[in-house]
């Protein structure tokens, strides 16, 4: 039975070999053309480090360092949540000196991606079609976070818990390798051509 099934599959593929080859090549060529004509994008990464603001040691609890790190971890998560707030994202654009080219709320909340790497470090990254805009937005992010964190730390006369320091933003050209895009296109074309062949065979029977 298995031998017959393998023979049937081989017969179907052999009978449609020309379609599979042509379709796969066309999709691969389309992917290569897309990679060639795709506009250059610029990826920006802004990293932030937290530091303890000279808190005095206390004998009230044994694991003070652990609780300080947990507090820093939660504070970083709070800072990262700002980038999911449309009002904050809009303020970044205004601080950069231009209006946000965003059409809906989802684009606001997904414009910047923040990721926590440790209890005391996180980074914000995004892409833009203009290097100049990417650099302006990076500078605005630095200003907004450092100023906002400083204001947020001052609570009713309480001491500052953490200081937030931005590292130099990095802006670099982001472009998919042509060979990688073409390879993915060829693979996708091959899979899709096989699906179409079997669908045609199914409806023909």
TrEMBL record:
<keyword id="KW-0472">Membrane</keyword>
<feature type="transmembrane region" description="Helical">
    <location>
        <begin position="12"/>
        <end position="37"/>
    </location>
</feature>
<keyword id="KW-0812">Transmembrane</keyword>
<keyword id="KW-1133">Transmembrane helix</keyword>
<feature type="transmembrane region" description="Helical">
    <location>
        <begin position="176"/>
        <end position="199"/>
    </location>
</feature>
<protein>
    <recommendedName>
        <fullName>Polysaccharide chain length determinant N-terminal domain-containing protein</fullName>
    </recommendedName>
</protein>
């Amino acid at each position: 039975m298995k031998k017959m099934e393998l023979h049937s599959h081989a017969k179907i593929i052999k009978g449609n070999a020309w379609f599979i080859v042509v379709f796969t090549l066309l999709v691969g060529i389309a992917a290569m053309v897309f990679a060639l004509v795709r506009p250059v994008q610029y990826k920006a990464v802004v990293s932030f480090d937290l530091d303890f603001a000279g808190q005095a040691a206390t004998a009230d609890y044994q694991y003070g360092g652990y609780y300080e790190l947990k507090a820093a971890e939660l504070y970083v998560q709070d800072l990262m949540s700002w980038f999911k707030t449309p009002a904050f994202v809009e303020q970044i654009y205004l601080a950069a000196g231009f209006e946000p080219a965003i059409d809906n709320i989802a684009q606001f909340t997904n414009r910047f991606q923040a990721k926590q790497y440790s209890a005391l470090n996180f980074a914000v990254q995004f892409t833009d079609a203009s290097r100049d805009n990417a650099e302006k937005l990076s500078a605005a992010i630095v200003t907004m976070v450092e100023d906002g964190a400083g204001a947020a730390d001052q609570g009713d006369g309480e001491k500052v818990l953490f200081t937030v320091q931005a590292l130099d933003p990095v802006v670099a050209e982001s472009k998919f390798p042509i060979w990688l895009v073409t390879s993915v296109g060829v693979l996708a074309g091959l899979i899709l051509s096989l699906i179409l062949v079997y669908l045609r065979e199914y409806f023909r029977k």
